[in-house]
Each structure stands twice: as C-alpha cells, then as structure tokens.
C-alpha cells in the first residue's frame, strides 16, 4: 500500500510540472498586463510601469521568470500578489482556501449522504412513482447550472422569505452557508444518486445477493453489507471527481452568494493578471485533484478487496 | 434526567450558535451599511479609480470644490497663490491629527506628494501633480533626486509648492480626493504592509478597524479627527465581485444595506414602478460622457465629413433606452454641461439625410466604396449592445458595414494604450471628470490624447495652449468656449450618452449628498434618523 502511494505521489510530479508550464505560458500570453487599469481614466506612465516590472522581475526574459518562480515555489516562496501588494500569495492561499475547502467538504458530504439515500430508495422502489420522482429530481438538479440554482435560492430564501442573508459570509455554521452548500451539493448529489441506483440494481441480481437472501440474511443487512458495499465502488469514483471541483470553490456560487473563497479569488486574479496568484491557485487546484484521485484509489482499495491484488 | 441533559444540550447549542451568529461587527451607535467592490489599492497615494469612495472616508485632502464651484477648506486653512502665479503657499490647520493621535505635519504632506510622484510608487495620481517644478522629470525617472521637486515644508504647518508655469487649474487638482497625505513614519516602518488594518492610520473622519480581503471593510469614527464629527459611528462595507448592482439590489430589498449605488438595467423599470422603491430612488447625472472615437490619423476617418456623417446617423435616444432603460442622458457634445467652456449649442446640426449627403460629399454615396471597418469595444457597461446598435444604425442609415470586436476589460485597456502608434478604426470610450475644470477635458483628454484619437487641429491646439496659462479667468473660459466650437465641428469623437447614477437610499438615511464630479458621497455628513 505504502509503495503504491509513493509511486502515485512521484507520478504526480510531472503532472504538476506540466500544469505549471501551461499556466505560466497562458498567463503571460494573455493580452493586458497586471498594470493596465481597466477603470482608471489614464494609462500608467511608462517610467512607473518600468519600475513595477523591475520590482516584480517582469523585465527579465520569460525563461528566467519561469525558472525563477519555479525555484521559489519549490522552496515554498510563492511570491507577492500583484493585485494586493500588502499580502503574499501564501497569505492569500491560507486566507481563501480554508473557506472553500470547508464549504466544499460540507457540500460533498451532503451530496454523498443524500445521493446514496436517494439512489438506494430509487433502486428499491424501481419503476414505481417514487423512483420516477427521484429520477426526475436528479435530472433536474444535474441540468440546472449552479449559478441559476444559487440565484433562485437567494431570491426565494433571502429576499422572499428572509431566512438567509442575500450576500456575505459569516462562517460555515451560519445561515449564510445554507445557499452555497445546497447549490454546490445538488449536482454531485444527483449524479451520485443516479450512479448508486444503477449499481444497486445491478448488484441486487448478483448470485451472492441471491445466496444471502436464500440463507435468510436480514434485508437491511443485505442492503448495507452486500449491495451497498459493492455499489459503492463506482459511486466513490464519481464522488471523487466531483469533490476536486467542489472543494476548490465555484466562482459563480462564491460570487453570487458573496463567499470569500478560492474559486472567486482565482477568477479575480485572472481578471487582474495577477500572475503569481494565477499560477499558485492553479497548482493548488492540481494538487487537490491529484489528492482526490489518490483518495479515491485508497477508498477502492478499502472497499473492494479485488483491487488489492492490482496494487500489490 | 435524559430530558434535562437534552434540554441543557439544546440550550448550550443555541448559545453557541447565537454567539457564532452575532455579526462580527459589533459597533456602538449608528452603523451605515453598504456594498463595495474589492479595492485595487488601500494605499490612498495609489488609488486612482472607483475605490476612492472607500479611501475618501479615511483620508482627507487639503480642500474640496463643491458642485457649485465653491472651495471648502478641509486639512488646509488657506491656499494662496503668489502674484506671479507660480508659488502656492498652503497653511495647514494645526489641530489636524492622524488616527493614532500624532499631528499631521507639512513634512507628511511633502513626503506624500513626492511619494505620489515617485515612479516606484507607480501612482496614477502623479499626473495631477506634474505641473510642479521638477515633478515631470522626477516622475519620468530622469532624476532620482526628490529634492529637485519644488515641494517644501517650511515649518510644521506650512507647505510651499512652486509650479513650472502659471497653472490656473492647479487648485482644482490640489483639492482632489486623490491627493491626500500618508503617515511617513508608519509607511516607512511597515512598507507595503502599512495599509493592513493593524498598522494603517488615517487623517480623515474615519479610521479602518477591520478588513477581510474580498469580504468586508469596517471603519469607525477617528477620535482624533479635528473637523466636524461624523453622525454615523460605523461604516460597514461588504465586498462584492461580479455583478455588484445585482448584489446591492438584493441586499437592499432584504434590508441588509442602507444604500445601493446602482440598479441592474433589467430591474430599473420594476424599481420605478414599485411604490416604496420609487420613493427611495435618487438620480444624479454624472459628469462624464460615452462616445465613439475615430482614429483621426488615417482614411477614411481623417475626413471631417465622414466623422460628421457617422455622428448624425446615430439615434442617441435608442442607445439611452437600451443601455439604461432611458435613464442615461443623450449627449450632444463631448464635454458635459457644467464644465466651463462646454456648450451643447455647439453640437453639429442635421439628421440622417444630412448624414447621407455628407458621406456622399466625402466620396461614398450610399456607402458605396466605403472600406469595411472594425468597431472595437470593451466587454462591459453595455458596450457590446451599444456596438450592435451602432452597427445597425450605420448600416441602415448610411449603407456602411462595421465588424464588431468585443474585448475583455484588461485586454481592451492594453489594446487602447497600444494604439498610440498602431492604427485602428473606431472604439467606444468613456471619460469621467476628475475635477471641475475645462483643462481636465480639453487638455488632459483631448490634447494629451489619453485615448489615442490622434486628433490634430492647429487652431484647437493653440487655443488650449493659450487657455492653459491664462491668468484672467473670464478670458480663459472664453478661450475654452472657442475651442469647444472647433471640437464639435471637427467631431474627432462623437458623443453618445451620459450615465445617470441611480441610488437607492433608505428613508432614514439623511444628507447623503452626491458629489457629481467623482460620484463620491462623504458619509461624514450623513445621518441616520429613525
């Protein structure tokens, strides 16, 4: 197991290097410099622009900047933020990532619990009204873009009923978290429910389930131990892929609901051409994707004994 | 027993939740709540955009010019110009203090003005101070010696500034909210991090008490502020990104904020028809203009008849109706009314038929032979829709075809800046008055050509040159009036419309007075009367 994990971690290094290279190139090739103001009346004086370029090493050739930033990043120095010189990129990651991680974890936990529940119920009531209703609800949730869900929830629950604030963030355990958590959870919940339903239906007719039934094992035990455990493998894969995108924050949900998260900051950094923040946030995103994939593999390893053979 | 434990747990959980849910800002007295965009800079010497609404509550300039043109002293007790018009003596009020209790000295002012001019500060506000002797060379990096800039603190409360030439508009620039002092000792001690809430000190009516990036900004009354004490104790700003108008309207309707600075276009009609909201709606015409601008340096745009034809073919009422539900004012001239020299009677006269005649006179009857051209706009402020309407109007009225190129904001800004030497066809652009002086329009915008219109007209240039150094005010304004006539007749750019700020203000908020020049609102003068 350890050697498997070590291999996976080492294999992720080239992936991260490719992500760094592509992000670096795209950031620097995008038209507009960090110093062009979109809202100021006047363009910046050339001398001031030159001074800023020199201060942040943007006057160096691109290959020197590429290696310089990489060397700094390897040593843990992600550089200063161009957009807000009073803080470093490391400060920004520390400030904004935890909010998105907390929000995303809550959303994915809600999605898994509700998704499994709906999936099992749908499978057990196959072709009946409840199954149809659940399937319809899941299709509805998957089809609707999150920004529409967020806006509708805010208008109904915030402006209409006054149950939640329309904007702003007061922490994960406050009413301000309800709309973003629900908005982020609906799509993965629906996907998990659909996968879970299909898998449960497939496993229900396997021989070992029939044997368990014949042996007189309790229905609840058959569902929990025999069916659900086997149905979990694809569900974990789906949940893992959704987790990586939900955990780093959604720009739409965070912007509309006013959550100071990583997703929103990333897009603001792109608009501001804040190169160090763009590169660092993309790398953090890549690391989270790699970690989520690793966790999915570990979960497979634990759930499905058959995979242990492959790992060895 | 179980029941008791359960009840105690519920009570404990409720207490914990209520503690957690108590708003983080627990100020005493009245609180003013609003939504702002994340400021690019918290350093007042570097703020040169809309974020000035935040810094102008914290930092105070020497004086301000009211909407009616009168001067009100703030940090200064007097500003006098020498007889030769070259030396400005500024007396500071001795009672001025920073929010940590230290006195605000003329040394702080000297340090701050030179800091704005220092190319390493890269401040967009340097351009307001370049008339000071030695400032241009220092700002351009030609000399590194700040002592060559003629700004001197002669004692603790007297600042003397020498200008390179007679500069009648210099007072208006000195009174700008962008020109404020920073505390030398604090800036030098903390460097870039001096603007963090734990370090920053300010000289204005409020002091910063907390700032969470992209989340909130909170200010309390500065206890050491020597001016009239504000009636509102706390200003709580929630920071929004994306569609800030959308966020503001939702929060305003849910009673979460007391003041909204804009309304999404799709909601304007609903707000006007709503019995309550309509009463709380305040409209202020901005001192700014949106226009279409031609690259005057090459054909066919170097032909005045072509420019006039395109201008006369535009239905400005239709534009206003689409971009603002009719709340924007039709702009007949580039320079807005209220700026001395401006006169809407100078606008070119005619209609679509005149436009066709002019185009035919230029050699393109019914648009025949007119080269295909590109209309480049930014992807904001309804400009893509404006571009489509212009394309349609020019095609239907003149028979000429434009291709639309929409660019992301920063890319557009960089692209326009790069048009200094590269040719283009047409763009749409905006200028908002920085100060109420004709030089800000005729000088900064058109002669200094910040938008790269490449407009060259000797008569216009010589009039502006004359007006810039005119000491007689009547003669100066008259010169600008003559320049305005040339500008409108030549049409290097064609005015489209002027935006109207749409505010929603709760009825218990009193005296929230707009400053039309920079769309500012000093909360110091505002009261909450419930």
UniProtKB/TrEMBL annotation, chain A:
Keyword terms: Cell membrane, Membrane, Transmembrane, Transmembrane helix, Transport
Pfam families in alphabetical order: BPD_transp_1, BPD_transp_1_N
Coiled-coil stretches noted in the UniProt entry, renumbered to this chain: none
Residue ranges of every copy of the ABC transmembrane type-1 domain listed in the record: 97-296
GO CC, any one term: plasma membrane
Entry's Gene Ontology BP terms: transmembrane transport
Subcellular location: Cell membrane
Location (main, coarse): membrane
Topology term for the membrane: Multi-pass membrane protein
Residue ranges crossing the lipid bilayer per the database entry: 101-122, 134-157, 177-196, 231-257, 277-296
Stated family: Belongs to the binding-protein-dependent transport system permease family.
PANTHER family listed in its UniProt record: DIPEPTIDE TRANSPORT SYSTEM PERMEASE PROTEIN DPPB-RELATED
Protein name: ABC transporter permease subunit
Species this protein is from: Rhizobium fredii
Organism phylogeny: Bacteria, Pseudomonadati, Pseudomonadota, Alphaproteobacteria, Hyphomicrobiales
UniProtKB/TrEMBL annotation, chain B:
Stored Pfam families: SBP_bac_5 (PF00496)
Cleavable signal peptide: 1-26
Principal cellular location given in the protein's record: periplasm
Xref: CDD domains: PBP2_OppA
A cellular-component GO term for this protein: ATP-binding cassette (ABC) transporter complex
Keywords of the record: Signal, Transport
Residue ranges of domain Solute-binding protein family in the record: 74-443
Subcellular location: Periplasm
Key word Transport present: yes
InterPro entries reported in the protein's UniProt record: Peptide/Ni-bd, SBP_5, SBP_5_dom
UniProt keyword annotation of Transport present: yes
GO process annotations (BP): peptide transport
Record-annotated membrane-spanning stretches: none
A molecular function GO annotation: peptide transmembrane transporter activity
Family: Belongs to the bacterial solute-binding protein 5 family.
Name used for this protein in its record: Peptide ABC transporter substrate-binding protein
Annotated source species: Rhizobium fredii (Sinorhizobium fredii)
